[in-house]
Amino acid sequence: MSDEKKADKVSVHVKFGDVEQTFVGNANDVWFLVNKFFSEMMPGFEVLSNVMLTVDLQSLIEDCKDIVAITPEGIAVLVPKEQLTDNEALMLHLLAGYIAQKSGLTETGVLTKEALQNSLGKSPKIISTRLGELTRKGHVIKMDGDYKISTIGIKTLQNELLPKLRTKAKV
Predict the structure, then answer these.
(1) In the chain, where does the domain assigned CATH 1.10.10.10 lie?
(2) Is this structure's pTM higher than 0.90?
(3) Which of 6, 51, 52, 78 is the most buried (most CB within 10 A)?
(4) Which fold has domain 57-170?
(5) Which of the 8 DSSP states describes residue 117?
């Protein structure tokens, strides 16, 4: 088999209780078979998946095009600061951190308060106040003094802020 054909193959081994199965094939076929395996082994899995909030990274990246960027120097928000509230700017920076981490460009999607303060050019008091507000809303998670965006924060951005910013950019 050529190296190119080997690279196209995916192998996934699943063990659930006493049942083990290995799936080999192209990515789409293996994905289908693994999902089928779980739906047969765990009938409640499909029901549970209806209420699980997840992020589709590919869709999120497409939604963020021309709004945030990850550069060799770090995270950049491409929307002029004057068009954003402090909370929106903070969430966009944290969102870019999440994308960078999930894309394997950084080890963590967590940002320090100081990094956020420098990026936004705001006083420590304003940053602390806004981060506190976002944390209380559940949009941001505080981790040992640093911050990351929550899944609900990502969904809020995707459903509310990103469409608004794309509309403004087209005007």
Answers:
(1) 57-170
(2) no
(3) 78
(4) Arc Repressor Mutant, subunit A (1.10.10)
(5) H
